[in-house]
Amino acid sequence: MAEPPAIPSDFTSFYRRTLAPLRRYLARLTGNAADAQEIAHDAYARVYPAMQEKDVGHPQAFLYTTARHLALDRIKRRTRAPFQESAAVGGDLAVSPSPGVESVVMAREEWALMQEAVAALPPGCRQVLLLRTVEHLSHEEIAQRLGLARSSVEKHLMRAVRLLQESLHRQTGGRDAIVQPINPRTGTSGR
Fold first, then answer.
1. Cα 111 from Cα 105, distance rounded (Å)
2. Among 72, 91, 164, 172, which residue's beta carbon has the most beta carbons within 10 A?
3. What is the DSSP string of 7-70?
4. Which tens digits make up the pLDDT trace of 19-69?
5. Number of compact structural domains in the chain
6. How far apart are alpha carbons 126 and 53 in whole angstroms?
7. Pair 119, 181 in one domain
């Protein structure tokens, strides 16, 4: 097997001098450092044999032009078929923006449990809780609307939260709560 030709020292110094700026240029052009590194490698692989065959008047311009053409080709391929590369590598890996079946089923079950728990609340507690969490009324606004004292609104809300947590704890068999605890002062979850 024949040995590959030795790299002339002037190409080695050319490579060392131009590699970092070329990668930065390509990273800005492609928006991806990994692509920039691959394209730079491909550009040097094309430029080196050409520089061996003939004297290139402006080697840096030749390198950048070659790299730019390779980058633009890659960008065109990416915009034409953005999922083609990933599909070829690992099968159908396209990520769906919608939740999976399991997530949808779990969310529906949790929603049904929450509806049951809210429906089981005493009417005053349920009314205060819904005004606070659904209509986002302040304690003062709820008190005015229902003709109650602010302290009564707070007591109804605290009782509603406690009863909801107990009910959900029973319904889930003591597993971790399916919803974030509700702050009785604000009537909102910790999310």
1. 10
2. 164
3. PPHHHHHHHHHHHHHHHHHHHHHHS-HHHHHHHHHHHHHHHHHHHHHS--S-HHHHHHHHHHHH
4. 899 899 988 888 888 888 999 999 888 888 888 888 878 888 888 998 999
5. 2
6. 85
7. yes
